[in-house]
Design brief:
alpha+beta; TolA/TonB C-terminal domain; 2 domains; five-stranded mixed beta sheet; 5 helices; 25% helix; TonB_C; TonB protein C-terminal; energy transducer activity
């Protein structure tokens, strides 16, 4: 596998070396560099890549290449080796969001430089254990606090067209270790589409600050009540 990767990189470099206005990374006199160095660039890619949440995803090594133009912008982004599960689309998007590099130079002038690199993704290991508030040291928090969360709901919730309808809706969801909400469901409804409307509004939530156990972010089960038309 390593030999095949090396050969693919070599062939890619050779193809670009035939393009007069683009230098290969090996031949350019002053190499382009990401601000802070390649360790920061690798960190940027790793922090923004979301491993596909599919038990069939076994991870693997992608191979991407791009051109760092004379302004430091990444162009001509390609995925040379894909591992499926829409990881190619993710890679292209993340690379397109990179901040500008310090461009390479030839004879003292900025030039376009071709660069190829692997992206290694781990296998999906499942969602991990689920905790409740009693078994963790720090519960999940909505940015700005629960008052801000309920304000989000009240500002976006469209109540059913029934003035006599009132009662309490109970919704549950999981605050994932990355702060996103999953497994949203209604466990007590009052009908007339109220439960479905609450689920719609929950989809508008920004990421929470995840709960913690032993200093690590964990998945936490959460339940909220919503009163419609005053106290039940």
């Amino acid at each position: 596998m390593k030999k095949a990767t090396w050969l693919l990189l070599l062939l890619t470099q050779l193809s670009w070396s035939q393009t007069k206005d683009v230098y290969t990374f090996q031949e350019v006199q002053i190499k382009p560099i990401f601000p802070g160095g390649m360790s920061f660039f690798n960190q940027f890619v790793a922090e923004n890549f979301v491993v596909p949440k599919d038990t069939l995803f076994k991870g693997g090594k992608m191979l991407v290449d791009f051109v760092i133009d004379t302004t430091g912008t990444l162009t001509d982004i390609r995925v040379l080796r894909d591992i499926g599960f829409k990881t190619a689309d993710q890679a292209k998007y993340i690379l397109s969001q990179s901040e500008k590099w310090i461009p390479g130079k030839q004879d003292g002038k900025p030039v376009k430089v071709h660069y190829a690199m692997p992206i290694v993704l781990p296998a999906y290991e499942g969602p991990g254990p689920l905790f409740d508030h009693k078994s963790i040291e720090k519960g999940p928090e909505y940015p700005g606090g629960m008052n801000a969360f309920y304000q989000l709901i009240m500002q976006n919730f469209r109540p059913p067209m029934d003035e006599n309808l009132k009662g309490k809706i109970l919704a549950s969801f999981v605050v994932e270790a990355d702060g996103s909400l999953s497994e949203k469901k209604i466990i007590k409804d009052i009908g007339h589409g109220a439960g479905a409307e609450l689920l719609r509004v929950l989809d508008l939530s920004e990421k929470w600050i995840p709960g913690e156990k032993d200093g690590n972010p964990v998945r936490v089960q959460y339940t909220i009540p919503i009163n419609i038309g005053g106290p039940e």
